# Entry
Amino acid sequence: MKSIKIGVAVILALLMVTAPMAVAGTLQDVQKAGVLKAGVNGGVFGFSMPDEKGVWKGLDVDTARAIAAAVFGDANKVKYVPLTAVQRLPALQSKEIDVLCRNTTQTLTREAANGLLFAHVNFYDGQGFLVPKKLGVKSAKELTGATVCVLPGTTTEMNAADFFRKNAMKWKPVVIESTTELSKAFFAGRCDVLTSDSSQLAAHRSVAPNPKDYVLLPEIISKEPLAPVVRQGDDQWFDVVNWTMMALIQAEEFGVTSKNVDEMLKSKDPEIQRFLGVSPGLGKDLGLDNKWVYNVIKQVGNYGEIYERNVGVNTPLGLERGLNALWTNGGLMYAAPFR
Amino acid sequence: MKNTAPETVPFWLDPKKRAIFFQFITLCVVGLLAYYLISNTIHNLKRQNIATGLRFLDKESSFEIGESLISYSAASSYGLALIVGALNTLYVSSIGIVITVILGTFIGVARLSTNWLVSKLAAIFIEVFQDIPVLLQLFFWYAIFYETLPSPRQALHPLPGVFICNRGVAFAVPKADPAHGYMAIAFLAGCVIVYLIRRWAKKQRDKTGRLFPVFRVSLAILIGLPFITWLLAGAPTAMSTPKLVGFNFTGGKSFSPEFIALLLGLVLYTAAFVAEVVRAGIQSVSKGQTEAANSLGLRPGMVLNLVILPQALRVIIPPLTSQMLNLTKNSTLAVAIGYPDFVSVANTTINQTGQAIEGVALIMALYLIFSLLTSAIMNWYNKKAALVER
# Structure
């Protein structure tokens, strides 16, 4: 009897204690853990994929590395968590990861109903269609009745549905959860069309058995601003991620690269001095080291370097800067002032 | 020991009252825990600004589903999308269960055959399919479809009206005609008649000992009645044949590679287990029974039907039920090869709406209902098949 009474009391006490969950800052949690847990795709060449030596490479990977460099001064302190499109948002919501760098499109629902916040865009994309050349299709409008391979749980899936509905065309989706399984099925001929963000299509084509046999159709049917994502309710951590992205862009605008960043420390320009932490202040406000920008640029490079290294014209993806050029060059990459 | 009045016994010494008391306490603790979990979840979701509730079911889904038994489009609601998924699950698992039981029984009996080759082939089948994880089997069958079969324009054409390509199997079916409705009614009427005949035949046998050829007569009625109806309705023979239009075949009936791969994987895997269950059931009936029946002069078919099966079924049905449940539950692996089953649709819904907890709860509820229904039917059958002690 007594033991049961005690048991009940203990359970009740536990309920009281644990009911309001402790809310610590993500930045402090990350610093304590000594490693940044970043959700990535893991299967898209040029964005996030381990190379043949098992080293993670890609634009999203470099974004995560930049955040780690800002927080720890060491870009290698990242633990990559490969996630499917369906897993990614719950993984972030449930704190399995600290930041999601997984070509995720910013949408109203994801911010307003899913409790997430998108930092500055790291890649402006749009949805396209990849088809085998031998199909002889010249425009997406000719795809009536086509079988289309598409990833589940993506904005892509809904855009495709909207596009075919708008044009009153019949179609048949084949929805496979794993990116690799899906592209395997497409290149084996299970579908007539593979639809996704055009950067991803370029990535898939670059690893196809015979890349020259496939063409991207001219239509771009959507806006896909891809950005790193964090949970709502932790403004400090959002600032860290957001301003790390901006620092990458600002560095390119200033002409600060991983190669010349040491010389730039001696620059007489007060803006660059402030930016690189030579005159202190900006890092402290974020809860970071004053040299955080220096660490980021030294170890990861500026946005232009990251772009050219992973997806630029000299890579297998061969993507022009386009919308992803600096605003000074007619693109959309624009950072707020560092002051 | 004088006659103590019952009310003087304190309630903690009365085992009956004590039992009720403890059960009440346990119930309270469980209830409190459930309350804590639910309220804590709701509180946390609110704190993270994540929407809750089932209101999303009415919203437009705006995603397409590859195959559907009912009319569905991207303009339909999430609720309808989930129903499509549930029907797809029901479709593949009910067809799967029927084929599995037939195939499994066949192989289980073959495993006991006195023919060396037959029994060894059955053994190989069982060992191979039982020992390979079902997910790998699914990938294997799916890959066979899209890797080895030609594109629709070069589709294999083994029989008139049948096309096999990497988009699936398409075949000709009779064109929709009112006669089909009448034939279905005739078939149902046939079922009722067969049931009555069987009852009458059993009574007749018990009374006079004379046997009536129930099986042959039933078969004749079940096939004959719809056939006569078809003739009376003017014998419509129009067929709907699949034709290559644009990218794919239209017309006729077709099964997608995802459906076939899933069905094949599930059936072969589960049939191996069912075969073992059937074998165990038959072996549980002692050999003396067969010998006794034989010495009474019963034919082999009657020995199986009247002596062995009624006793073996008692052993077979409970594990068979659990294999049926396994098949239904394993059908969730459809996600891996792109068959739009309930989990696949619910996953997409979860991702588009961000309401993971509600979605997962719906998934659990649906499989619980499917499993409980299967169990209920099988338990009813088990009671019927159980040995009636006289």
